[in-house]
Records
---
Amino acid sequence: MKPNLSTLLGGMTPEQFLADYWQKKPLLVKNAVPGAEKLIDREGLLALATSEDMESRFVSQAGGWQMRHGPFTLNELKRAGKPWTVLVQSVNLALAAGDEFMRSFDFIPHARLDDLMISYANDGGGVGPHFDSYDVFLIQGMGKRRWRIGKQKDKTLIDGLPVRILQDFRPSHDWVVEPGDLLYLPPEWAHDGIAVGECMTYSVGFRASPSQELAEQFLMFLQDRICLDGRYRDPGLKRQKHPAEIGTAMIDQVAGILDEIRWNRDTVRDFLGASLTEPKPHVFFDPPARPLSLTRFTAAARKRGVALDRRTQLLFSGRRFYLNGESWTLPKDAVPTIRTLADQRAVGPLPVLDEEAMADLHSAYCDGFLHLG
Ligand code: SIN
Ligand code: CO
C-alpha cells in the first residue's frame, strides 16, 4: 500500500502544495490514496492495541468523556460501552506496510516526519473537537468519517476532562470522507472527526518542537560538551565593607568564565542530528542472531545492498551522518551512497567503499540498525 504522488495531492506537485497549503491552509483530496483501506483492518489494529510495545489510547463517550492508555485486552474492548475509538501511535515502527505508507510523505523532510497513528472507531466515535499543535495528513481507511474543521481563535478547552475538548467549537467546513480521501490540516486548526458507521483513519503526523523545549534540550546537549579550564581565583582580594555582599569583582570574573561557553552552527547541527535521530524510548532493535564477519558482510552488501531497519533514523548534513543518536563523518567517496541510503532507506549493490565506512556499516548491521538487502 504505497500512496502514489500523482494522486496523493490531487494532481498538485509537492512544490505547489508546499507553496500554497503547508502550514497555511487545509486541503481535502478525494481518492488521494486509492485502496487505502487495504493497509490494515480492524483486527490488525486492535491486535496492535493489545501489545505492550505499542502506545495506544482508548477514548469513549459512553457516559461522558473517558480516556485510558493501553495495552488493552480484546474482551475489554468488546465489553466497552459504545461509541468508542482506539488510537495506536507509531504503527510505522511495528508494520513494514505502515512505514512504507508514511514514507510516501517524504516530500516533507524526514527530520519533520514523526509517526503514523491509526485509529478505529465504531459508529459515532471520535476524540471530540480539538486542535493539535502539529501538521497532520488524515487519510481515511475503512469506512466513512464526518470531518468538521474551522480556524477559530478561541482555543479554550473544557476544564477537567481526560481529553482535550474545545469549549466552543465553530466549524467552517463540513465533509464526509470515504476510503482513500485525504485531509491536510495545518497546526492549530480545530477539527472533529466523527465515525459514520465504523471507520479507520490514518494520521501522518509531524514534529515541531516548542522553542522553549528546543532551548532546554540544547542546553542539556551542551552541558555534556562543555570543557572550561581554570577555576575562580582572587589573589587581589580586598576587604569588603559588607562581608555578606557579592562583590562586583566576583560577578565580573564569573561573567567572564561563562562568556567562554561557546557554540556555533556545527554545535547546533550536531544537536539536531543527535536529538532528531535518537530512537523513541520504547524502540529496541533486534541484532542478527549470527552476524556475518566484516569480510562476509562486505561481500554480501556488494551483491545485495543494504536497507535501514524501519525503526532506524538516519539523517545527514554535509558529510556528517547521524544514525540513531550517534554521529559519523564519512570520507568523501562514501557520501553519495550513504546519502542515498538515508534518503531512500535502502541502497542497491554497494560500490567499493572506504574501509572505515564499511566498518561503520558493519557495526550498524551488528546492532540491528540495518539489514542486508
Ligand atoms: C482520529 O483518528 O480519530 C483522531 C485524529 C485527530 O483528530 O487528530
Ligand atoms: Co487531531
---
Amino acid sequence: MNYEECIEKVLVSEEEIKAAVERLAGEIERDFKDSDKKLLLIGILKGSVVFMADILKKLNIPLETDYIKVSSYGGTSSSGHIKLKAEPDREDLSEYNVVVIEDILDTGNTLSWLLGHLKDDLNATTVKLCVLFNKPSRRKKEVKIDYEGFEIPDEFIVGYGLDYNELYRNLPYVGVLKPFVYEG
Ligand code: IMP
Ligand code: MG
C-alpha cells in the first residue's frame, strides 16, 4: 500500500497551506506583540504537531510552547467523550495569554470543553483559538474561532498532521481518502 493509491483528491495543497500559515502567524503576531502578558501557544496532540511546528517558525515574537493531549475520536466519527491524556506543564496560566493551536474544528466537543478548562480551571488571562481547518456543517457545540485557515466541506480529511487510524499524518498536503480505505 502506498499513500498515493489511497488519496482520491487533494483538497488543500502544500502551497495553499503555507500561505494560510503565514497569514495566521501575521494575525497572531499583530494581536500579541504589544501585550504585557507572556504568550503561550498550546498545541493539541497529536494532530496539530505539523501545523504547530510551521506556525511557530513564522512567529517573530517571544513565546513559550506547551502541549495537551486529548482524545475523542475512533475511526471517522467523534465519540463525544473527551479524555484528557496530558495536561500542560504549567499548572497556573494567570501570567499568560494563551493561543490554542488545533488542526481541525469539527463537532466542537473537544474544544468547547478544553477552552473552558484553560480559562476556568487553569486561570489563563485570555484564551484564543487558532484552527487550520473548520468544518462548520458538523458543529454540535458553539466554539468561537479567532484565527481560521480554511473552511472546508463535510469530508473526512487526512494529511498535514491529520490521521485516519494513525496513518497519513506525514502527507505535506490535505486530501480525501478513497472509499475502499474505510471499507478495509
Ligand atoms: P471535535 O471534538 O469533533 O471537534 O473533534 C476534533 C478532533 O477530531 C480533531 O482534533 C481531529 O483530531 C479529529 N478530526 C475531526 N475531523 C477530522 C478529519 O476530517 N480528519 C481527521 N481528523 C479529524
Ligand atoms: Mg486533533
